[in-house]
Amino acid sequence: MLAKIGGKHPIDTPWLLPTFLAMIHALLDATQVLGTLEIDGAAYEVCAEAIANHDRRTNQLTVTIRAFLRSEKHDHIGETTTPAWIPQPQTVTEHVEGGEAHEMANEIFATWRRKVSGVIPH
């Protein structure tokens, strides 16, 4: 949902849209394979993902993190599944200056990767 600027949504005021979008800075969009598993004879990659944005106007960092299994079979490319043992997706918000936002986003993703790695069945 877009925030209102001056009582109007930026999308309704085309000249405001570039200004509005310039306030949100995309920092991170990453997926990392943490390992592989075999389930019922099929190979899967255990993946951790983070998408981070920083709002320069409010200094709010938002990091959306999730984990999933991705099939390694070529006939199932793009298919993912989320078994019960994988942690639930989360959204982490922090207030941080723009110069520190990227480092904070990386730290949040590193913590998430450790959490997911710790629950992978062996």
Describe this structure in words.
The chain is α+β, with helices and mostly antiparallel strands and 122 residues long. 24% of the residues lie in helices and 41% in strands. It is built from two helices and five strands. Strands 1, 2, 3, 4 and 5 form a five-stranded antiparallel beta sheet that branches. The longest helix is centred in the C-terminal third of the chain and has 22 residues, at 98-119. The radius of gyration is 18 Å and the shape is elongated. The chain starts with 16 loop residues before the first helix and ends with a helix.
Put the structure in a nutshell.
A hairpin with a 2-residue loop joins strand 1 (24-39) and strand 2. The protein contains two helices and five strands, in the order H-E-E-E-E-E-H. By secondary structure, the protein is α+β, with helices and mostly antiparallel strands.
What gap, in angstroms, lies between the N and C termini? 41 Å
Number of H- or I-type helical stretches: 2
Largest sheet: 5 strands, antiparallel
Q: Oligomeric form of this entry?
A: single chain
The overall pLDDT average reads 85
Radius of gyration: 18 Å
What's the total count of β strands? 5
Structure characteristics:
single chain, alpha+beta, 24% helix, disordered N terminus
What layout of secondary structure does this protein have?
Elements: H1 17-23, E1 24-39, E2 42-55, E3 60-71, E4 80-81, E5 90-95, H2 98-119
Antiparallel strand pairs: 1-2, 2-3, 3-4, 3-5
